[in-house]
Amino acid sequence: MRQYLVAVDVGTGSARAGVFDRHGTMLSRAIHPILMQKPKENHAEHDSEDIWRAVCLSVRSSMAEAAIGPASVAGIGFDATCSLVARGKSGEQVSVSTTSEDRFDTVVWLDHRAIVEADFLTASGHPVLDFVGGSISPEMQMPKLMWLKKHLPESWSKAAYFFDLADFLTWRASGSAARSNCTLTAKWNFLAHEQEGWCQDYLGLAGLGDLKERASLPSSPVAPGQAVGVLSARAADELGLDTECHVATGMIDAYAGALGALGGSLGNHVENNVALIAGTSSCLVALTPKRKHGRSLWGPYWQAVLPDHWLVEGGQSATGALLDHIVRMHAAGGEPDAALHRRIVDRVMALRAIEGDGFANRLHVLPDFHGNRSPFADPHARGVISGLTLDTSFDSLCALYWRTAVSIALGTRHVLEALESFGYRIATLHLAGGHVHNPLLMELYADTTGKHVVVPQTSDAVLLGTAMTAAVAGGVYTSLSEAGAAMYPGYEERHPDGTRASGYERDYRKFLAMHRHREELDRL
């Protein structure tokens, strides 16, 4: 009997695969790095065949560790970053790179080459913008496609498919070019609540009147939890599975994480809960049965994750990536691997114990080093550091690291307040992603927001959410709500430390003042 699930998550730097049982227990997990090149500023590119090889290696390794056979796997699910893959008529790779190398056929989600195109779409005021918070981000697909058509016309003419990365993975696995309602509503300006989801006048405005044909886009996408087919013979051989394994429709990685983090709440007042998926960047995801619009919040997206629910997302474009950047740029830093992060965190803890709450309290950071996704929807925003001295010691790095972590948590509070200003009532913050391994951030998320913080008892909520979609696609459960209730692993709670509330309230007032001062400087 097929009762096991395989989940695959493709992030910015690696592909991970996990094997789960029907109760949500992860039996094994494997990870393999993926390539990324940055040929020039604001350009970042993947090789999708390299990604697929990493996926196959990870799946084979996790299956071997779990010691189960292919005949026991009911379904496989894929989630990925919202990167953009180009393929030709015969499925061949098509370059998206100024280097013209065909193997670099994928524009990475964090690539900001299309910022001018994003500004153009935002300035249009088209009604589609009502469903992306009033502005288009260069991290979305329409501006990237506009850039490719304008700057790489030869590649545009060769292309027969453009995929969100998650949809590329399901295509590579099953041979089906079906697309996910999750990816299309969130990144392609597809209006799933309308009878005709593609707005032809909007595509014409963008100069992409031929996009539906050029990208082989469907009129009707597939809902999360549904199957796009079964594994092809080729993919089954490459993955070490069999052709009776169902392939679930793809998911954006943050939304898969939201599903895993909120799984136990899907059938019970889910609208009072927000999932914070925090890793390289951070996404705050809310689900609600009632449509609520909000400036600078991505969405509302109809049934992007859960049937009969709208999804809205606020975000921070660089959080874990910002801490890495601080470590890398400081004279006492270096390559920001896990060991160096641990060393810094341990020293921060020691310095706080010695100096108390006054540690580094004259250092202040605005974390918008890669623009501000929410609540300002300003990709042109820049980071700010106030209070630097000539000190280049390791302790000065620790002080800056600590205050950068504080700024990230204050930025999260800023996004939560934006959500609440548009009618969301948030009682609990469900935290998942790489930040759960950073004790400074875990403490700060509770203390700076004042929210009840819940951490699912799983080592990987993103993979768990993807496994839930595989469970429904493979017939183990009948709905995502049923899968969520059965597979959710329980949680640990964190409550804010009230003794620190006044200090963080002062920090937040300074944080808001720095935003005002930056705006004033930009106007001069």
Q: Spans with pLDDT under 50 lasting ≥5 residues?
A: none
Gross morphology: globular
CATH topology of the largest domain: Nucleotidyltransferase, domain 5
In helices, the fraction of residues equals 25-40%
Secondary-structure map:
Elements: E1 4-10, E2 14-20, E3 26-33, E4 45-46, H1 48-66, E5 73-80, E6 84-88, E7 106-107, H2 115-124, H3 141-151, H4 153-158, E8 159-164, H5 165-174, H6 181-187, H7 200-205, H8 211-214, E9 227-230, H9 233-239, E10 246-248, E11 251-252, H10 253-262, E12 273-278, E13 282-288, E14 298-302, E15 310-316, H11 320-329, H12 338-355, E16 364-366, E17 384-386, H13 394-421, E18 428-432, H14 439-449, E19 452-456, H15 461-473, H16 480-487, E20 491-494, H17 501-523
Parallel strand pairs: 1-5, 5-10, 5-11, 12-18, 18-19
Antiparallel strand pairs: 1-2, 2-3, 4-7, 6-7, 6-8, 9-10, 12-13, 13-15, 14-15, 16-17, 19-20
Helix pairs in contact: 2-3, 10-15, 11-13, 12-13, 13-14, 15-16
Explain this structure:
The chain has 17 helices and 20 strands. With 524 residues, it is an alpha+beta fold. The strands form four sheets. Strands 1, 2, 3, 5, 9, 10 and 11 form a seven-stranded mixed beta sheet that branches. A seven-stranded mixed beta sheet has the order 14-15-13-12-18-19-20, sandwiched between helices. A four-stranded antiparallel beta sheet has the order 4-7-6-8. Helix 10 packs across helix 15 (461-473) and helix 12 (338-355) packs across helix 13 (394-421). The longest helix has 28 residues, at 394-421. 53% of the residues are buried.
